[in-house]
Amino acid sequence: MLKVTVLDKKDSINCPYRDIIDRIGDKWSTLVLVILEQNPTRFNELKRTIGDISQKVLTKTLRELEADGYIARQVYDESPPKVEYRLSDLGWKVLMPLRQLVQWAEENHETIRHNRAVYEKRKRSKKRVR
C-alpha cells in the first residue's frame, strides 16, 4: 500500500509523491520534458512552443529540472552564447510514464471537459434555487 500521509512538515521531504511527483507533475515541467523528447532545444524555442509561459516561469522550471537531473544544459562557446537543453538519462526514463499520462489525457480530454461543463451547470442551477 502507498503511504502518502506524513506526520509533520519535515517528514514531507521523505515522501516521494510530494518531493518528486510534485516537480514532474506540474504542467510546465511535463510540457518541457515532452518537448525535449523531440530534440535538444533552445530557451526561446521552448518558450515559443509552449506559448503561454512567462520567461520567469520557464527559467524557474528549467533550473528545477536541471537541479533534479532530468535535463542537461549545454552552453556553446559562441558569440552570442548558444544554450541548449536536452534530456538526461533520468529525463528519458521518466518519459515512459509521462507518455502514458499524456496519451491518457489526450484520450480522455473531451470526456473530462464535458464532465466539468455538466458540473458547472449543476452548480449554477443550485445557486439559483437558493
> What's the β-strand tally?
3
Low-confidence stretches: none
Examine the coordinates and then state which fold CATH places here, giving the name of the CATH topology.
Answer: Arc Repressor Mutant, subunit A
Number of H- or I-type helical stretches:
5
**What proportion of the residues form beta strands (DSSP E)?**
5-15%
Order of helices and strands: HHEHHEEH
Spatial separation of the terminal alpha carbons = 43 Å
Task: Give short descriptive properties of this protein.
130 residues, mainly alpha, Arc Repressor Mutant, subunit A, three-stranded antiparallel beta sheet, 5 helices
Describe the model.
The chain is mostly helical. The protein has one domain (11-129): Orthogonal Bundle (Arc Repressor Mutant, subunit A), CATH 1.10.10.10. Helix content is 63%, strand content 11%. The protein has helices at residues 16-24, 27-36, 43-50, 55-68, 89-129; strands spanning 41-42, 71-76, 82-87. A three-stranded antiparallel beta sheet has the order 1-3-2. Strand 2 (71-76) and strand 3 (82-87) form a beta hairpin. The longest helix is centred in the C-terminal third of the chain and has 41 residues, at 89-129. 11% of the residues are buried. The mean pLDDT is 89.
